[in-house]
Amino acid sequence: MQWRSRRSDPTDLAALHPGVPTWMLRPLVMWATAVMGMRKTNHGTLEGPYSPDPELLQEFETATRRPRSLLSNLRQTAVQGLYDAMGVDEFLDFIDFLVFHVERLGWQASEFQDALEDLLRDAGSEWAVGDRDGHASLEKRVPEGVALAATDIVASSGSAGTLLAEAWHAAFGRSPDAEEAYEKAIKAVEEAGYDKVSPKNAKATLGSMVRDMKVQRDWAIDFGPSHGNVAVQMAEALWVDQESRHGGNNYRKPTQAEAEAAVLLAVPLVQWFTSGAIARRSDAPSV
Fold it and tell me: Rounded to whole angstroms, how far apart are CA atoms 204 and 142?
């Protein structure tokens, strides 16, 4: 439960804010200071708080190939000095690194991860603590129900789920890649459905699958035969709108918004194909 001002605008509270909004800066700096001040003893226990560990900054700078070190900024003005020198985007990268570091500290440090998630949520940040490549990381926040559904589908969809997970993190992770997200979203749907739609075509693409489904004309979804062409329309939209697959003058990288929409469109398609919710049925309407 969180207190809300009686003068709060519900619409404003529901909005997700990019970057580091003013009201989030001080608690975020305090969180980073606390994490950098923890030390793991030889016995595996945590001790602190100490002053911020400069080795963590040095590790981050090495990993990101930063041309000029900010160690003097850290010594003179602590973590606030890092934010002032880095700016919003690089500081969020540094927070992402600290989230990774917290996981290295072990289960005793899990409270730091929980505290950051609470901070981000209460501040209305567009960022959340998620998972990338098997470790904790910053991730774009989406409605909780959608994220939970996507997690379940990824876990239950085999190789298609793996591709969907890669698409999800390319779209919503700390370093988004719109083109990668869109491409992996399409590959996830292809992997989930090609053996059902075009079992004799090992090189089927989403485009050829849509073509075959239109020719077959008998695809339907569990929740009603009258909606049998919904999945076909969704798959066709996902395929047709990927302009980055064209060469020459028609080439255009997808925008971040288009990539996010593509991934969210792929989530139900992967689930329908892998679960059998969409299948060829005799009572299906013409597609």
Answer: 31
Dist CA 149 CA 169 (whole Å): 15
**pLDDT surpassing 60 at residue 147:** yes
3-class DSSP state of 120:
helix
Whole-Å CA distances, 29 to 83, 152, 200 = 8, 34, 57
Cβ neighbors of 124 (< 8 A, separation 6 or more) are 13, 15, 16, 17, 21
Which DSSP symbol is given to 253? P
Task: Write the DSSP string, 231-246.
Answer: HHHHHHHHHHT-GGG-
Q: How far is CA 74 from the centre of its chain?
A: 30
pLDDT band at 8 (very low <50, low <70, confident <90, very high): low
Rg (CA), the chain: 23
The residues that bridge with 136 in the sheet, in sequence order, are 131
> Considering the entire predicted model, what is its pTM?
0.71
> For residues 102 and 86, is the Cβ–Cβ distance under 8 A?
no
